[in-house]
Amino acid sequence: MSRRRYVARGVPGGYRIWDNRGRRWWGDLYELCPDDLVAELNGGADHARITALMKRYRAQKR
């Protein structure tokens, strides 16, 4: 199995997505683990699906 580019890492206050290739954080701080979003980033990377998932996880913060 190849090494995944994006992984969710626990940080104080929730989770952030780490970009292994770029060696930096990607996206926002999420209270719940964004498993679907990480899977889509590592898989098909469909822009519309990623946008919808980001909106869903942002709405859960409110």
What's the SSE blueprint?
Blueprint: E1 6-11, E2 14-19, E3 24-30, H1 35-42, H2 47-61
Antiparallel strand pairs: 1-2, 2-3
Helix pairs in contact: 1-2
Descriptive report:
A hairpin with a 4-residue loop joins strand 2 and strand 3. This protein is of the alpha+beta class. The chain is built from 2 helices and 3 strands. It has one domain. The model has no long low-confidence stretch (mean pLDDT 91). It has a 3-stranded antiparallel beta sheet with strand order 1-2-3. 37% of the residues lie in helices and 31% in strands. Helix 1 runs antiparallel to helix 2.
| Average predicted confidence as pLDDT | 91
SS element count, helices: 2
Q: End-to-end distance, in Å?
A: 37 Å
- Strand segment tally: 3
Q: Helicity range of the residues?
A: 25-40%
The proportion of strand residues reads 25-35%
Question: Which stretches are low in confidence, meaning pLDDT under 50 for 5 or more residues running?
Answer: none
- Radius of gyration over C-alpha positions, nearest whole angstrom: 11 Å
SSE order, one letter for each helix or strand: EEEHH
The helix-and-strand class reads alpha+beta
Major β-sheet profile: 3 strands, antiparallel
